[in-house]
Records
---
Amino acid sequence: MSRFLALSVALGLNAAAASAQGVYTGGDRSGCGISHLMNGITQPRIIESSGTTRSYSIHTPSNYSSTNQYPLIVGYHGSSSIGLFFEADTRLDEAQYTGDKIMVYPNGVGGAWAGANYSSTTMPEDLQFTWEVLADIRSNYCVDSARIYATGLSNGGGFVGTLACNDTVGGEFAAFAPAAGSFYTDNDGPNDGCTPARSPMPMLEFHGGADADVFYNGGPGEGGMLPAIPDWLSWWAERNGCDSQYAEEDGFNNDVHHLIWTCQNQTGALQHYKVDDEKHDWPSTELDFSAIAAGDGPTHIEASAIIQAFFMNFTQPAQ
């Protein structure tokens, strides 16, 4: 275990103790008791949403039991892509990461998610699609509704930010972890239409300092104006009621910077990893597809492991 991952686990003991007081016990459990074949193999599913046929894929643990409630992670792919690519890129299906969780990979219309000027769908449409994906899963699989999480890359990471700013659909999630997020819908201050369902809303963001597609310091992007990541983090610190001073741990010859905020007595409810020489890709110690596409190589940290430690520290509180 890397010291960065170990620190994330240690931070979570504090946050988990705070968030565990009054855990949400609601949510549809009608999927519990329904058995499935071919567990451990990703399966496609089709649903109707906003008058359109939409799709997603689901991966259950190989030892899936219909009587056990599982945490659920929804992973949003980047632009010009599909869920299958994000699945292969992140390796989030591997048992070392999600052997005790359900993974879900929705597909955006036209290979993208709402929020960018190139998007084929509106934000209400993709928010509704997310709502209906969750409803379909919970009515067919046994889900712990207190432990539903979202992650995503690039345009998908930006949509994760959109979800976190939504006080209805976003309220179904316990924590969020975008990577290289293109935050087109959250680029003008802490109160610019962002209304999280609760505060603090746990958030972890990864970003490369050498990202030439979604610039760390913001500016014009492929799909609109992008915020500088330090500004975006400061807005979330304000929304989450975080202490003004954050902690920072630097490693790997000062190439990796881990920022940790304490928010309303929950240490680590807002976190950020910056890798100075990383480009526009999913952070991994192994060469992944997004790194190849970005002309990059492996980096020092494994986001797929770090987000597991982060997510499992937070549950949706009682309502």
---
Amino acid sequence: MTSPDVKQVTVYYCAPHALYQKVKPYLIDYEIEGGFPRTNIIPEAHQIMLQDIRGREDSFDFESSGFGVAEMQTSMSYDDFRDPDTVRDVYCQEVASCLLQYTDAAAVQVFDFALMVWRFLKIRRRHPSYPFQVTDKLPALQPAMQVHVDPDSSHENLKWIVQSLQGGNAECMSAEQRCTYCNVWRPLKGPVLDWSLAMCNAQTVRSEDLMSTDVLGGKHMLTEDMRVFYNERHEWLYLSNQTPDELLIFRQADTNSTFMGVPHTSFSDPSASQSDYLRESIEIRAIIYHKSKLTET
């Protein structure tokens, strides 16, 4: 019997198929013609024990576990999140200020808009038919069902992002500068009981658990993310009843390659009722420029 703060849920990893010894996994994130398969990723369902961190948030350290919870009140209204310009000018700045204080960093740079790649701004509004309807037919992005680490989250891609944010000048970033690429996840309504976010403790992840995957987000937009193989060592956690004033901040890559990214996925909670809010959430990405150098971590 499980304790009250632990749930048994199903999440979907990538199957360790022999195919990937010869062919790189890929995902085409838009509808294409001609019947070409949109992905060769083979999902593999696993039952996991999911621990609630509510009431013990301080037990998990951003540096070691790879994630943390920060409180932030926004001046944005619910309807404001439908306007990309307001999100850019107000919300992204609020998040940057919160991250600066939370991490005691030298600087923080939100890059969802800075690189002019609109796919980075992700507002998800679960449709009542999800996950039983093809998601590209729905009016908004839906919760992600497969365990993954975010696009462009490899060590080398992080260097490219930082250099791009600095105008392409590779010399502007010291070889000793430590930077962290993080995701900041927040519900637009709360508390969240429907398709909440589950995170894997970075301390339980190894490089051999991850597989680089090509993601084609448009006809001229090729990136990579990391798919994840199941390992019984993985420790899964979530924040129950998350409110809009609570940010989940989790690492996706670090210039110190010993710091692993945090695999994550949404999950269907069998205890949630039909009357609960359908999940609506926003996630943005930022670079944290640490005061410490690589040689000091």
